Every structure is written in C-alpha cells, then in structure tokens.
Amino acid sequence: MPAQNSRNSDSDGSNSGYQGGNTVLTYVVGGIIAWGLIGWGLDYLLNTRWLFIVGAVLGAGGGYYLARKHNLTRGAKRRHGDGQGNNI
C-alpha cells in the first residue's frame, strides 16, 4: 500500500492568505453595498443627498472592522503567529 502524501494548499497555509484577502474584500464590499442601500433609502425618505455616501463609508469601515475581529488581516496574524508555533 503506497504512502499518501497528498496535502492540499489549504492545509499547509500557502493559499490561506489569498482566501483571507478575498474574505476581507467581501466584508468591505458587502458593507458598502448594505449600508449604501440603507443610506440611499434614508436619502429617499428624508429628501437628502448625502446619507448614501455616509452609509457607504460607514459600511466600508464596518466591513474592515469585522475582518479585524475575525482575525483575517495580516496584522492580526503577525501578532498571534502563523498558527504553527512560529511567531512571524
């Protein structure tokens, strides 16, 4: 029976930075869309024009904040090591 040394790119961590970056981007873009729509709705109800921009900026900040809370950004990874006992 041959030994199986099949390791996918997720288990050795070589693809985790790419996936983390995609997740951060998804959080930020999702925040912009969601809070931009909320701002757009409030603009429509209150007859203003500036709440859409405020909502989009708050959404971007909120998405980045959530990504930091989920330890998906590089700064958090440096603080806690690489997950294999190595502090980088």
TrEMBL record:
Looking at the record's lineage, which domain of life comes first? Bacteria
Annotated TM spans = 24-42, 48-67
Q: Which keywords annotate this record? A: Membrane, Transmembrane, Transmembrane helix
* Protein name (database record): Putative F0F1-ATPase subunit Ca2+/Mg2+ transporter
* Protein's organism: Crystallibacter crystallopoietes
